[in-house]
Design brief:
alpha/beta, Rossmann fold, 7-stranded parallel beta sheet, globular
Amino acid sequence: MSATVDLTGKTAVVTGAARGIGAALALRLAQSGARVALVGLEPMELAARTATCQGHSEARAWTADVTDLARMRTVADEVVAHFGRVDIVVANAGIAIGGPFAQSDPASFDRVITVNLLGSIATARAFLPALIDSRGYLLQVASMAAMAPAPLMAAYCTSKSGVEAFAHTLGSEVAHQGVGVGVAYLSWTDTDMVRGADEDETLRKMRASLPWPANRTAPLAPAVERLLAGVARRAPHVYGQAWIRVFQWLPRATIPTVVARVAARQMRALAPALEATADQRGGPVGPGGRADAARSSSPTT
């Protein structure tokens, strides 16, 4: 646990807080003294995570689909009414599918972009007035996928490239109002989503063929500590794994070219297996993805 982060008196909102990075970061924010609003789709998971946070600071859960702007505006109003202010927003909610674009289900593909990109935009739109009032900070969780788009991840890479661009643009627009905007980049991190993707043997083989360290799953706790430190210092860029920083300084046009050359050989080798298992590759991976697929049309607080 970091001994240097003190967020006492701050109110933090975390979307996608039922599992994974969102749940772990919500807890660390609470342990650092922040009052925490946990937003997500799974009421039972949210209740458990909220109870854990309440052992350290004031915390409350809101069930919401981040793509529902009206609902997110209601949540924002209720968070401000309950806590009095919002100082930090972490737009973390996200889902993923895997497999070749040509084999993907169009509805599932589009839903990844809707949740990851448009859901992040709706989150920012709903909470921006409160952040302007507090001269607060928004951390948009992107991914290394925004820097290095990889095969079998077209929907996810597209969405994360989009949120990176959105956050950078928003940051330039609201800086004069005292609002900070940061982008977080993470590689494969030990979450339910990554473990769900690894259940697909062909996708796991593709990932294992990536060069080190991009082919390994990084532990969750150190990544969350880096995100927490980034929030505390209102950083414009936060790296869940230190080695990702190197990619930030490489020419962006170079990375996809290199990836494409390497991937061509891998895709040729994996093509028969991908074709044979195409019918096993449906909706979003992991329990969080399944929760989104089964989302209620009328979420409640």
